[in-house]
Each structure stands twice: as C-alpha cells, then as structure tokens.
Amino acid sequence: MADSPAPAAPKTNRIGLALQDYKGGKSTLCAGCGHNAISERIVEAMYDLGVSPERVAKFSGIGCSSKSPAYFLSRSHAFNGLHGRMPSIATGALLANRSLVGLGVSGDGDSASIGIGQFMHLMRRNLPMIYIIEDNGVYGLTKGQFSATADVGSTQKTGAVNELPPIDTCALAIQLGATFVGRSFSGDKKQLSAMLKAAVAHRGTVMLDVVSPCVTFNDHEGSTKSYAYMKDHDEPLHEIGFVPAYEEIDVEYPPGTAIDVKMHDGSRLTLRKLEEGYDPRDKILAVRRLMEAEQRDEVLTGILYVNTSAPTFVDQLKLVDEPLATLPESAVRPPRSVLDEVMARLG
Ligand SMILES: Cc1ncc(C[n+]2csc(CCOP(=O)(O)OP(=O)(O)O)c2C)c(N)n1
Ligand code: SF4
Ligand SMILES: [Mg+2]
Question: Ligand 2 atom 8: the closest Cα is on which residue?
Fold first, then answer.
C-alpha cells in the first residue's frame, strides 16, 4: 500500500513562525463579543509583520476587555494589573526595557472611568506603546452599567436612558499629547488590521479606541455601541494602506488623492482620502472634526491624528540605548571615588 503523503508544513511568516505561534488560550468571553474579533486582528497583524512574540509585553487592567490578552500572544510577556492602573505598570516596564513592543488592552470603564487619571498622564508623556480601548459603552464584566463613553440618549436593555455627556477618549488623547490616535470598529477587519500594523511601526503613544459591541448587555436597539448602530453611523475618513519597511512600495495614487506618512522605521502609511480636506497631521482639525461628528451623530473612524516627529518619553528622559533592565552592575554603580567625593561634600 502506498504511503499517505506527509501533512503539509504550516505556512510561516518572515521570521519562520506559524499563525499558531501568535495565538493565546481559548477565549472565555461571550460568543460574538467584539473583543474576540480585536484579539484575532492582533494575532494576524503581529504574524503578518513578523514581530517576535517574545519582544511584546502585554498589559491590561480589569474587565472583559482586560481579560483578552490571555487569548492572544501566549509567548509574550504579560501583566494583568488592577482596575484602571495599567498605565503605571506599563510605564515602569517599558522604561526598564525600552526594546519591548508595549501593547496595552483596556476597556472604556477601565480607562475612561476609574483609570482616567492614569490614562491622561500616559497620553501626555507620549510613552512608546500601543494602547487599545475596547469600547462598548458599558462595564461588561459587572453586568452592563453605563460607562463614561456611553452617548447621551443611549439606552440600557431595561430602558434606562443615559443623560450624562460622553468622554471622547480620542479627542482627549489628541489634546493631551498622544501622537497616533485612531478610532475603529471591531467589525471592520480591513481598517483595524491596517491601523494595528501602522501602530506597531509608530514611535510614541498610539491610542486606538475600537468600538467593540457587548453582545450580552449593549447590542440592542437604542444602544449607540451596537453592531447595527455602527453599520449605519460609521464614517471612515480614508482608506488605510500600510507598507512595512521591508516590503517594496508598489502603490501609487494620483497626486492630491492620498496623504503619505513616513514612519520612523521607514514604513509607509498611505491614507487615501474619502473626506476632502482631512489631514491627520492637523491637530486642531482632528479635534474639530470629532466635535462636529458628535453633533451629527456620526462615528468618525480611521487615523484621526498622527505626528511622527514629537519626542517620546524615552527621548525626554535621555535613556541609554541598552535597556536599563539588562545594564550590568559595572555600568550602573558609581565607582568608590565618586561615592567618596559625594560623602566629602556632605561632611
Ligand atoms: C477597584 C475596583 N473597582 C471596581 C471593580 C469592579 N469592576 C470590575 S470590571 C469593571 C468595569 C469593566 O468595564 P470595562 O473596562 O469597560 O470593561 P468591559 O468589561 O466592558 O470590557 C468594574 C467596575 C474592580 N474590579 N476594582
Ligand atoms: S459581557 Fe459583554 S463585554 Fe463581556 S464578554 Fe460578554 S459580550 Fe463581551
Ligand atoms: Mg466596557
């Protein structure tokens, strides 16, 4: 009898890893939860770019969204912190080891309610990391109370109406100093994938607010964070193309129809204009368009703001190239003569 053919080897990326190498544990979130779709996009983006999972450090707080780092990149470093306190953990870890790719996953409750103070200081420092808010307008884990991103007039399943104005985390991040700010929708695979890839290439704080419907507590008629509402109100600003530094650039657009942003590692971000006159390098315009969109009940999606030249927190602190965590004792301990001099001055 002829031998059966050996099973085909799995497809691998440019560093020789299979998609499986980027996955995590089996999700325990509800089937259909937007957060699961975001985890899938993270797995694909890291696989496609050939990022070594061991170079990634995942951070999160508390919530269904904050549980999700367990469901991707199981070979990466990870720290699941207290509710709303992920930014200080991430800041410490990323300053101790500047060579890591920082990836924070938070919820609208975790970031815009209990953690808003920490969130704001992270944004103003321009710490190099990707900070994702999986935004469903509710505290999913504690059974669906309104969060601070819930829109005025949005209803709970019980019929209760939210009357408090929402915090727009994108407008806040732009105003405070984050240098790559975008909004997307967990149901828009193409847009979210391109944004995540560009985020990996950016140097500075990337804040992505991803509308991610909670199918159990906030996906009904009357909710403004449901799949149906997003399908009707999503207003993409541009079509996003991302060409990593190691690939040949073969997309060209007629002059004036696209905005080209060169990332610091040589990658190229191409934003083909859907909305005339929108330039994501213009901070004031970005905040104005967000406020106008709110008045028109539109959800603007895409890269709202990008600045590739602002100094990062790592630049400002003048950190040495070698990660602090791996500096040998000889490089961090002052010699005896220096200590003697200090003691003599104090004497
Ligand atoms: C200090 C503290 N206060 C309150 C809670 C209860 N709690 C757990 S998760 C959560 C809200 C989570 O909402 P969000 O961040 O939007 O995540 P989601 O579950 O919606 O993804 C709250 C209030 C807690 N765990 N710790
Ligand atoms: S309760 Fe909502 S947010 Fe939490 S896992 Fe279920 S659908 Fe997702
Ligand atoms: Mg939430």
Answer: 33
CB distance 129 to 90 below 8 Å: yes
Q: Is the CB of 37 under 6 A from ligand 2?
A: no
d(CA 308, CA 178): 11
Q: List the one residue out of 306, 270, 300 whose CA is nearest residue 288.
A: 300
Relative to the alpha carbon of 63, which ligand is closest? Answer: 1
The pTM (predicted TM-score) of the whole model is 0.95
**Six-digit token string for 171:** 């407008």
What would the two tokens of residue 325 be? 């965590």
Nearest atom within ligand 1 for CA of residue 113: 15
For residue 73, the SS3 value is: coil
138 Cβ closer than 6 Å to some ligand 2 atom: no
Asked whether 34 and 228 are in contact (CB, 8 A), the reply is: no
Q: Is 210 in the pocket of ligand 1 (CB under 6 A)?
A: no
How many angstroms separate the CA atoms of 122 and 2, rounded?
Answer: 63
Q: Give the residue whose CA is nearest to atom 5 of ligand 2.
A: 29
What are the tens digits of pLDDT across the range 183-227? 999 999 999 999 999 999 999 999 999 999 999 999 999 999 999
Measured from the alpha carbon of residue 61, the closest ligand is: 1
Show the beta-strand stretches assigned E in the chain: 56-60, 77-80, 101-107, 129-135, 138-139, 145-146, 180-185, 205-211, 234-236, 238-243, 258-262, 268-273, 299-306
User: How does pLDDT run across 88-107, given as a tens digit for each residue?
Assistant: 999 999 999 999 999 999 99
Q: Give 201's contacts (C-beta < 8 A, 6+ positions apart).
A: 242, 244, 245, 263, 264, 265, 267, 269
Check if 176 has its Cβ closer than 6 Å to any atom of ligand 2: no
List CB contacts of 137: < 8 A, sequence separation 6 or more: 108, 146, 147, 149, 150, 151, 154, 214, 218, 223, 224, 225
